[in-house]
Amino acid sequence: MRQEPEFFGEAELDLVYIAKKLREALPLEEALSSAGIDFAVELDTYRGGLIFQTERTGAFFFVLPEKVEAAKEVLRSLKLKPHEM
């Protein structure tokens, strides 16, 4: 379920996905919640574009390290590519 970052305390969270559009973020939130995975979402900027790079805003999805593989399975079930470090 979606949690505020304070919920995780001092734990390090791993980035599993950057949703570039709301239509990606909403189904992912629902799927992670249905799978019982606690996650945090933070709006942040990223660089996008091949020729003309621009700074864009996306929804960054974070989970605890022990939930990374489960979260990646949820992403793959939605045909989304997990973020690779």
Structural descriptors:
Alpha-Beta Plaits; single chain; about 80 residues; globular
Structural features, described:
There is one protein chain. With about 80 residues, the chain is of the alpha+beta class. The chain has one domain (about 5-75): Alpha-Beta Plaits (2-Layer Sandwich), CATH 3.30.70. Helices cover about 25% and strands about 30% of the residues. It has helices at about 20-35, 70-75; strands at about 15-20, 40-50, 55-65. Strands 1-3-2 form a 3-stranded antiparallel beta sheet. It is globular and about 40 Å long.
The CATH architecture would be 2-Layer Sandwich
The tally of beta strands, per DSSP, is 3
Rg estimate, integer Å: 13 Å
Tally of helical runs: 2
Mean pLDDT: 93
Topology overview:
Layout (H helix, E strand, L loop, with lengths): L13 E6 L2 H13 L4 E10 L5 E10 L4 H10 L8
Antiparallel strand pairs: 1-3, 2-3
Provide a concise account of the structure shown.
The chain has 85 residues and is an alpha+beta fold. The protein has a single domain, classed as Alpha-Beta Plaits (2-Layer Sandwich). It has helices spanning 22-34, 68-77, and strands at residues 14-19, 39-48, 54-63.
